[in-house]
Amino acid sequence: MRRSSTETKAAILDAAKLRFAADGYDRATIRAIAADASIDPAMVMRYFGNKASLFAAAAEFDLELPDLAEVSSDQIGAAIVTHFLERWERDDSLLILLRSGVTDDAAAERMRSIFTAQLVPVAAMASPEPTQGMTRAALAATQILGMALCRFVLAFPPLASMSRAQIVAWLGPTIQHYLTGGEPITSPPGQADDP
Questions:
Q1: CA-CA distance, 14 to 169, in Å (whole number)?
Q2: C-alpha–C-alpha distance, residues 154 and 147, integer Å
Q3: By residue range, what is the domain housing residue 16?
Q4: Same structural domain, 76 and 112
Q5: Tens-binned pLDDT, residue by residue, of the chain (195 aa)
Q6: 75 and 53 in one domain?
Q7: Cα dist. 166→77, 93, 148 in Å?
Q8: Peptide bond just before 157 cis, omega within 30 deg
Q9: 181, 99, 69, 94: which is closest to 135 by C-alpha?
Protein backbone atom coordinates (compact mmCIF):
# COMPACT_ATOMS: atom_id res chain seq x y z
CA MET A 1 0.00 0.00 0.00
CA ARG A 2 1.39 3.37 -1.01
CA ARG A 3 1.34 6.10 1.63
CA SER A 4 0.97 9.82 1.07
CA SER A 5 3.81 12.07 2.25
CA THR A 6 1.69 13.11 5.24
CA GLU A 7 1.07 9.47 6.17
CA THR A 8 4.74 8.61 5.67
CA LYS A 9 5.89 11.45 7.87
CA ALA A 10 3.36 10.48 10.56
CA ALA A 11 4.51 6.84 10.43
CA ILE A 12 8.13 7.92 10.84
CA LEU A 13 7.26 10.14 13.81
CA ASP A 14 5.21 7.40 15.48
CA ALA A 15 8.07 4.93 15.04
CA ALA A 16 10.60 7.48 16.27
CA LYS A 17 8.59 8.22 19.42
CA LEU A 18 8.42 4.54 20.29
CA ARG A 19 12.07 3.89 19.47
CA PHE A 20 13.39 6.94 21.36
CA ALA A 21 11.18 6.03 24.33
CA ALA A 22 12.45 2.44 24.33
CA ASP A 23 16.13 3.00 23.51
CA GLY A 24 16.87 6.62 24.38
CA TYR A 25 18.47 9.09 22.00
CA ASP A 26 21.95 7.56 21.86
CA ARG A 27 20.94 3.98 21.09
CA ALA A 28 18.05 4.73 18.73
CA THR A 29 19.17 4.58 15.11
CA ILE A 30 17.70 5.92 11.88
CA ARG A 31 17.89 2.39 10.48
CA ALA A 32 15.85 0.94 13.38
CA ILE A 33 13.28 3.74 13.18
CA ALA A 34 12.95 3.20 9.43
CA ALA A 35 12.48 -0.54 9.94
CA ASP A 36 9.80 0.12 12.57
CA ALA A 37 8.00 2.41 10.11
CA SER A 38 8.46 -0.08 7.25
CA ILE A 39 10.27 2.51 5.19
CA ASP A 40 13.69 2.97 3.64
CA PRO A 41 16.17 4.86 5.90
CA ALA A 42 16.75 7.35 3.08
CA MET A 43 13.11 8.44 3.40
CA VAL A 44 13.65 9.26 7.07
CA MET A 45 16.58 11.46 6.09
CA ARG A 46 14.55 13.03 3.29
CA TYR A 47 11.78 14.10 5.64
CA PHE A 48 13.84 15.02 8.71
CA GLY A 49 17.43 15.55 7.59
CA ASN A 50 19.20 13.94 10.55
CA LYS A 51 18.65 12.18 13.84
CA ALA A 52 18.70 15.40 15.88
CA SER A 53 15.95 16.97 13.74
CA LEU A 54 13.89 13.79 13.94
CA PHE A 55 14.28 13.73 17.70
CA ALA A 56 13.21 17.38 17.97
CA ALA A 57 10.08 16.62 15.94
CA ALA A 58 9.32 13.45 17.90
CA ALA A 59 9.82 15.27 21.19
CA GLU A 60 7.60 18.24 20.33
CA PHE A 61 5.40 18.50 23.36
CA ASP A 62 2.69 20.78 24.64
CA LEU A 63 2.34 20.49 28.40
CA GLU A 64 -1.25 21.77 28.02
CA LEU A 65 -1.03 23.41 31.42
CA PRO A 66 -4.37 24.41 32.90
CA ASP A 67 -5.47 28.02 33.19
CA LEU A 68 -4.74 28.65 36.85
CA ALA A 69 -7.09 31.65 36.85
CA GLU A 70 -9.84 29.03 36.98
CA VAL A 71 -8.27 27.26 39.98
CA SER A 72 -8.70 28.24 43.63
CA SER A 73 -5.40 29.70 44.87
CA ASP A 74 -5.09 27.03 47.58
CA GLN A 75 -5.56 24.22 45.03
CA ILE A 76 -2.88 25.19 42.51
CA GLY A 77 -0.43 22.50 43.66
CA ALA A 78 -3.04 19.75 43.48
CA ALA A 79 -4.20 20.95 40.06
CA ILE A 80 -0.65 20.95 38.67
CA VAL A 81 0.18 17.47 40.01
CA THR A 82 -3.13 16.06 38.75
CA HIS A 83 -2.52 17.59 35.36
CA PHE A 84 1.02 16.25 35.00
CA LEU A 85 0.01 12.74 36.05
CA GLU A 86 -2.65 12.75 33.36
CA ARG A 87 -0.22 14.06 30.73
CA TRP A 88 2.47 11.48 31.58
CA GLU A 89 -0.08 8.66 31.42
CA ARG A 90 -1.53 9.52 28.02
CA ASP A 91 1.49 10.65 26.00
CA ASP A 92 4.90 9.02 25.59
CA SER A 93 6.54 12.19 24.25
CA LEU A 94 7.50 13.55 27.64
CA LEU A 95 8.81 10.13 28.69
CA ILE A 96 11.01 10.17 25.58
CA LEU A 97 12.53 13.42 26.77
CA LEU A 98 12.87 12.23 30.34
CA ARG A 99 14.63 8.99 29.41
CA SER A 100 16.86 10.65 26.85
CA GLY A 101 17.49 13.83 28.82
CA VAL A 102 19.47 12.11 31.54
CA THR A 103 22.12 10.93 29.05
CA ASP A 104 21.94 13.29 26.08
CA ASP A 105 22.65 17.02 26.07
CA ALA A 106 20.31 17.76 23.14
CA ALA A 107 17.43 15.97 24.86
CA ALA A 108 18.16 17.73 28.15
CA GLU A 109 18.14 21.09 26.36
CA ARG A 110 14.83 20.21 24.69
CA MET A 111 13.32 19.38 28.08
CA ARG A 112 14.64 22.64 29.56
CA SER A 113 13.22 24.68 26.70
CA ILE A 114 9.78 23.08 27.00
CA PHE A 115 9.61 23.63 30.74
CA THR A 116 11.00 27.16 30.49
CA ALA A 117 8.61 28.24 27.77
CA GLN A 118 5.53 26.62 29.27
CA LEU A 119 5.94 26.24 33.05
CA VAL A 120 7.71 29.52 33.90
CA PRO A 121 4.76 31.74 32.87
CA VAL A 122 2.39 29.59 34.95
CA ALA A 123 4.73 29.76 37.95
CA ALA A 124 5.09 33.53 37.56
CA MET A 125 1.32 33.95 37.48
CA ALA A 126 0.84 31.82 40.62
CA SER A 127 3.73 33.37 42.55
CA PRO A 128 3.26 36.20 45.02
CA GLU A 129 6.41 37.64 43.40
CA PRO A 130 6.15 37.21 39.60
CA THR A 131 9.89 37.82 39.07
CA GLN A 132 10.52 34.50 40.83
CA GLY A 133 8.80 32.52 38.05
CA MET A 134 12.00 30.84 36.85
CA THR A 135 13.08 29.81 40.36
CA ARG A 136 9.64 28.55 41.33
CA ALA A 137 9.19 26.67 38.04
CA ALA A 138 12.59 25.00 38.47
CA LEU A 139 11.73 23.91 42.00
CA ALA A 140 8.35 22.56 40.88
CA ALA A 141 10.05 20.74 37.99
CA THR A 142 12.36 18.92 40.43
CA GLN A 143 9.32 17.31 42.03
CA ILE A 144 7.31 16.72 38.85
CA LEU A 145 10.22 15.21 36.90
CA GLY A 146 11.46 13.26 39.91
CA MET A 147 8.02 11.78 40.44
CA ALA A 148 7.74 10.86 36.75
CA LEU A 149 11.20 9.27 36.69
CA CYS A 150 10.48 7.19 39.79
CA ARG A 151 6.89 6.25 38.83
CA PHE A 152 7.04 5.72 35.07
CA VAL A 153 10.68 4.92 34.25
CA LEU A 154 12.23 3.30 37.34
CA ALA A 155 8.90 1.97 38.71
CA PHE A 156 9.89 2.54 42.35
CA PRO A 157 7.50 0.79 44.73
CA PRO A 158 5.14 1.87 46.12
CA LEU A 159 5.09 5.01 43.95
CA ALA A 160 4.53 3.00 40.77
CA SER A 161 1.31 1.53 42.13
CA MET A 162 -0.06 4.53 44.04
CA SER A 163 -3.32 6.03 42.85
CA ARG A 164 -3.42 9.51 41.37
CA ALA A 165 -5.25 10.73 44.46
CA GLN A 166 -2.49 9.43 46.73
CA ILE A 167 0.25 11.09 44.69
CA VAL A 168 -1.69 14.35 44.56
CA ALA A 169 -2.16 14.21 48.35
CA TRP A 170 1.57 13.71 48.91
CA LEU A 171 3.02 15.93 46.21
CA GLY A 172 0.37 18.65 45.85
CA PRO A 173 1.32 20.54 49.04
CA THR A 174 4.99 20.65 47.99
CA ILE A 175 4.16 22.04 44.56
CA GLN A 176 1.73 24.45 46.22
CA HIS A 177 4.51 25.73 48.45
CA TYR A 178 6.99 26.07 45.58
CA LEU A 179 4.55 28.04 43.45
CA THR A 180 2.70 30.16 46.02
CA GLY A 181 4.57 29.98 49.34
CA GLY A 182 6.69 32.63 50.93
CA GLU A 183 10.37 32.89 50.13
CA PRO A 184 12.57 31.03 52.63
CA ILE A 185 14.69 33.05 55.03
CA THR A 186 18.38 32.54 54.36
CA SER A 187 21.52 33.90 55.92
CA PRO A 188 22.92 37.11 54.43
CA PRO A 189 25.69 36.53 51.84
CA GLY A 190 29.01 35.73 53.48
CA GLN A 191 27.46 34.35 56.69
CA ALA A 192 27.21 30.64 57.31
CA ASP A 193 23.88 29.10 58.25
CA ASP A 194 23.58 27.96 61.82
CA PRO A 195 24.28 24.21 62.21
A1: 34
A2: 10
A3: 5-58
A4: yes
A5: 678 899 999 999 999 988 887 787 888 999 999 999 999 999 999 999 999 889 888 887 788 888 888 899 899 999 999 999 998 888 777 777 787 788 778 778 888 888 888 899 989 989 888 889 999 999 999 999 999 999 988 999 999 999 999 999 999 999 999 999 988 887 666 665 555
A6: no
A7: 14, 24, 14
A8: no
A9: 181
